[in-house]
Design a protein that fits this description.
about 475 residues, single chain, six-stranded mixed sheet
């Protein structure tokens, strides 16, 4: 192996490749080393229909193509990582490093505090031997496994997490979806303001320094009685177009019997009830009203306004991508245990003030005929036309899964993504690499999307107290 002092040598753990099949091409000018035990673990993980198995098979295809392109090159000298075959996006820097395989046994005695020959310990052993052989080169172990990184640090290795899949450096950088206007806002931004009405809607054209920090689909408001509340419709180089919004806190503007209880819920209902918004993302902890508001808006637009043919609701089943089973029952019956939140909120929305038991049952049956529960496993290849698609627990989806689901939307379909990035159950996903975070960040500048972070719980005073004090 050629010693290059200016580049690092990254030893990859198996879970990095299982998590991101393109990880081989994400280290720019640096070199990559794959221990033989990693190839063995990849071989064991290639079977199945889960995303992990698909990633493993894609990694194997990448490795095969690299070996075919290298021809009779001496593997000891490494294989150049070719970016052209991958078709990386234009923003990615083409890799110029080399890929090295373990071609001979690297025997070194592990410290006595690491007994056994587990795959993790074997990877540590290989990395330690590389560190001894190439003293002038920086050897770094890359793993999504926190415990392996801890063990690597204990035995004197440099270990890092795989961060290329992170959308943001910190989840706190995610936009809230709204901005409080300062007290001197109008004195600074009203000099060339224009206003007009169109089809009963009021629009304003604003210029000024603050407007350049806003994105379409965000809201602005004044924290005072009678202050303006508006949504940013379009953003241009020197100005923005805003539109005043509906106040869903008023009883006469209830949506399927539901009123907004706070400002953030009012913003969320404006996005959910707006046919010009194709994608809505709602973040918030339990009890902030994400599912209730989404269902109320969906029922109102599907049954009353008939904008959509039906409501389709799906959520990730843990573990992600595994089969929902071969036991008797329809797809909806098998998904029922995962849909407790849907049933709880439907109970709130369908409680009639009066009527017989038969009338209530008839109402429930009618509503359920308009609400379809689907499994994520069968979404590939589907196209939904004029549907109201709800992706619940979206924080547990990867960026690739989110892309697969959102691209199912056909003409006339609205997609609503709900989740709490502080409650992720999928292995190796974090707040900054979740598919929900990815979607919020990528769609923030699109005119036909909107995002709101719900911060105030409205479930009950008991739940609120428990959230604050437990």
């Amino acid at each position: 192996m050629t010693q290059t002092q200016t580049t690092r040598l990254f030893v990859l753990d198996t879970n990095v490749l299982m998590h991101d099949a393109t990880a081989l091409f994400r280290f720019q000018e640096h070199d990559i080393f794959l221990p033989m035990v990693v190839l063995e673990e990849l071989d064991r993980g290639k079977k199945g229909v889960s995303d992990v198995a698909r990633n493993v098979r894609q990694v194997s295809r990448f490795l095969d193509e690299l070996l075919q392109a290298a021809g009779h090159t001496d593997l000891e000298q490494g294989i150049p990582l070719q970016a052209g075959m991958l078709g990386l996006d234009k923003t990615s820097k083409a890799p110029s490093g080399r890929l090295y395989f373990q071609t001979k046994p690297l025997t070194t005695d592990l410290p006595a505090l690491l007994p056994g020959n587990s795959p993790d310990n074997t990877i540590l052993e290989v990395a330690l031997q590389l560190q001894r052989l190439y003293t002038e080169r920086e050897i770094i172990l890359v793993s999504k496994d926190i415990n392996l990184r801890i063990k690597a640090t204990i035995v004197g290795l440099t270990a890092e997490d795989y961060l290329n899949d992170q959308v943001l450096e910190d989840a706190d950088l995610l936009p809230l979806g709204y901005h409080l206007l300062p007290a001197d806002f109008w004195s600074e931004h009203s000099k060339s303001m224009q206003s007009w009405q169109q089809q009963g809607r009021t629009f304003y054209k604003l210029t000024g320094p603050l407007t350049q920090t806003w994105y379409p689909g965000e809201f602005i408001f004044q924290d005072e009685e009678g202050g303006i509340q508006a949504i940013i419709r379009q953003r241009f180089a020197d100005h923005v177009i805003i539109e005043t919004i509906q106040d869903y806190t008023e009883k006469r503007r209830a949506v399927w019997g539901i009123n907004a209880r706070n400002r953030q819920q009012n913003f969320a209902l404006n996005l959910l009830m707006d046919p010009d918004i194709d994608l809505v993302t709602l973040l918030g902890a339990a009890g902030t009203g994400k599912t209730l508001l989404t269902l109320a808006a969906g029922l109102a637009q599907t049954l009353d306004e008939q904008l959509y043919k039906e409501i389709i609701m799906t959520r990730v089943t843990v573990p992600v991508g595994e089969d929902i089973g071969f036991l008797p029952g329809t797809e909806e019956e098998k998904m029922a245990p995962w849909m407790g939140a849907l049933m709880d909120n439907l109970e709130v929305l369908t409680q009639p003030t009066a009527g017989s038991k038969w009338a209530r049952q008839s109402t429930d049956e009618f509503l359920m005929s308009k609400i379809k529960i689907k499994s994520l496993n069968f979404m590939r290849g589907r196209t939904f036309l004029n549907r109201y698609l709800i992706l619940d627990e979206a924080q547990n989806l990867t960026s690739k899964q989110m892309k697969t689901l959102i691209t199912r939307a056909g003409p006339g379909t609205k997609v609503v993504c709900l989740g709490n990035i502080g409650q992720i159950d999928t292995p190796y996903l974090t707040e900054t690499s979740s598919g929900l975070t990815y979607v919020v960040d990528k769609f923030k500048s699109w005119d036909y999307s909107g995002h709101i972070t719900l911060q105030r719980g409205e479930r009950s005073r008991l739940a609120d107290f428990a959230s604050d004090h437990l």
